[in-house]
Amino acid sequence: MEDFVEIGFIINTHGVKGAVKVNPCTDYPERFKKMKSVLIRSPKGNVNEIEIEDVKYFKQFVIIKFKGVEDMEGAEKLKGSTLTVRRADAVKLPEDTYYIFDLIGCDVFEGRELLGKVKEVIETGSNDVYVVENSGKELLIPALGWVVLSVDITAKRIEVKLPEGLRDI
Description:
By secondary structure, this protein is mostly beta strands. It starts with a strand and ends in a 9-residue tail after the last strand.
């Protein structure tokens, strides 16, 4: 399991006083207002904790001012970095809801038959779709309660009951 959860990417500076523009990659962007600090992973892989001074929202972006970053030059050095939190600090999800990165790599079974591994999850708006790969072939499985019978993240195992004709597509 991942030790860190990505919650955003610093895509640019914002203004001249050291703020940065963040593209959030979380279903809970309001979390930034409640956070006192965040872990920043630079493009080179270095991880440092930094305190948050202020948070604002602009369109689909989050504008963050970090303590100690006082000008555009300081903010420029943060471009391309990833904002993360420790898994223990991740937002607690509702029952039967999972982080996509936890689903990737899970074995998918129908009964005793291994259908493959989850390679990707497509978010369609109405329901997610698991892209399951086996021997170079892909099977698209809708993440619906009557199709996905159980998910065990610890065992990396998903049980499904495929709808009639799904394999033939």
